[in-house]
Design goal:
Length: 357
């Protein structure tokens, strides 16, 4: 039986990480990949113990990121947790063999007793194309073909299939099979309406990155997803939406902003598009963290209000926050996770449960 969001309990809340390796802007120290991965596993344990619903890990193939194989780290996490859903965030589908990907996550599903999910995307970075011998000119065709194969693998123990970018399959046995009837698959989308429509047409979940600006600007993507899904004949309850955003929580609004500002700038300049060319003053940052923008930084009450405001706009089933960015010390990340779980989640679940009735 496939597990997933239960609206009888309100929307799901969780956290995700990309595992980047950046110098702490205050101490100028750089954590090792070993320490970063240990802290990622510990974050997942904290989130599980505190009752959060989802934990995600991204994939990158560069020296300034610690994780290139999310399923391996998620398997380690599975042995140290009992309830939390374990997802990729995201898998770069264009440059991975779908058969290997499915088998890896089916194995993770068994190890975790039915908690594995795949978020498939095209990736914000392109280093995996030359690394694994793929041509950037095939960027979209690779994704479309690999998604077609992945979905077929999810449904069939034996498969016959032929494409353009990998060897033909002739009554191939696909093993092991997951504990869930099928692995939940989400399509990661940034700003592409075409990608949102594709997710809807396929009837898979939409994982939408809402990382800046007024959330209203992302509403057309959600509408395009739902319209495409309904037009393709998928029931509305199958069309699930997850929102991923940058976030950080402290006891007070001012404390959260003071603790997070330098780390956010550190992250923004290193990885966000046009980040090196943009200068973000503290006044700018205050506006970015304001009630009408998508940066989830503030007190528990402010985060509650923002999540519920977006819920009214999108009607989504999940909210995930990326908290450990820009070299935020693990001790502060841990406190932020605790506040999300103990002060934010109960209110958000209660209010969204009411709204779903």
């Amino acid at each position: 039986m496939e597990k997933g969001t239960n609206l009888n309990s309100g929307i799901e809340l969780g956290i995700y990480t990309l595992g980047e390796l950046l110098y702490d802007p205050f101490t100028k120290k750089l954590v090792s990949a070993k320490q970063r991965i240990d802290e990622i596993v510990e974050s997942a344990k904290l989130a599980d113990d505190a009752g959060l619903d989802v934990f995600g890990i991204g994939e990158h193939h560069r020296l300034d990121f610690a994780v290139s194989s999310p399923h391996v780290i998620l398997a380690a996490i599975a042995q140290n947790t009992s309830q939390i859903r374990l997802i990729s965030a995201t898998t770069i589908l264009s440059t991975v063999d779908p058969v290997r990907l499915f088998e890896d996550f089916a194995t993770l599903d068994i190890v975790s007793n039915g908690r594995a999910e795949i978020v498939a995307g095209r990736g914000a970075f392109l280093e995996s194309f030359p690394l694994f011998g793929y041509n950037l000119d095939d960027y979209d065709r690779l994704f479309a073909e690999n998604m077609d194969l992945l979905l077929k693998l999810n449904e069939n123990e034996h498969i016959t299939w032929k494409g353009n970018f990998r060897s033909e399959l002739k009554d191939a046995e696909i093993a092991p099979r997951p504990i869930q009837q099928r692995l939940p698959i989400w399509i990661g989308v940034g700003s592409s309406e075409a990608s949102a429509k594709r997710a809807g047409k396929l009837g898979e979940g939409l994982m939408l990155a809402v990382l800046g600006g007024d959330p209203i600007h992302f509403k057309p993507l959600v509408d395009a997803y739902r319209n495409a899904g309904l037009k393709a004949g998928h029931p509305s309850n199958k069309l699930k939406i997850a929102i991923g955003s940058h976030g950080y929580i402290s006891k007070t609004s001012q404390q959260a902003k003071e603790e997070f500002y330098s780390h956010y700038i550190n992250y923004f300049k290193s990885f966000m598009r046009n980040g090196r060319q943009m200068k973000i003053s503290k006044t700018d940052f205050e506006q970015m963290a304001g009630p009408n923008n998508s940066l989830f930084v503030g007190s528990p009450q402010e985060i509650i209000e923002k999540i519920l405001s977006q819920y009214e706009l999108f009607g989504h089933q999940r909210f995930l926050a990326q908290m450990d960015i820009g070299g935020v010390p693990f001790s502060k990340v841990a406190k932020s996770i605790e506040l999300l779980a103990t002060e934010v989640a109960p209110v958000v679940r209660r209010e969204t449960k009411k709204a779903a009735k």
